Amino acid sequence: MINLVLLFMGAALTALWGITHLFPTGSVVKGFGTLSADNKNIITMEWIVEGVSLIFIGILVAIVTTIDHQNSVSTAVYFLSSSGLIVLALVSLFTGFKVKFLPFRLCPFIFTASAVLILIGGLL
Which of 91, 96, 95, 89 minimizes the C-alpha distance to 115? Predict the structure, then answer.
């Protein structure tokens, strides 16, 4: 039972961070100052892609957990989702963590926490 709680907590944390990632997209792009239209579109696209990816990972983990959390496919989903979140945490640690804006500095910790919750929940 605790494994299900951990899995759903990891899924929720991941998806919610992805949702909150989408809201400030316009402000983030404006924060870069004067940019070409191409650069604005690239930053907007990348910002949205990260948010949507986090939402997808969270929903995928939640759905797999709801359907059947004790099979080889769900184990693979948990492992790959955790691995992806750890990669994002490392990228954020070496890039976004250097930014003074607090949400950027929170990313490595949130990604790592989500990965640990999902991984432990999947192993129990």
Answer: 89
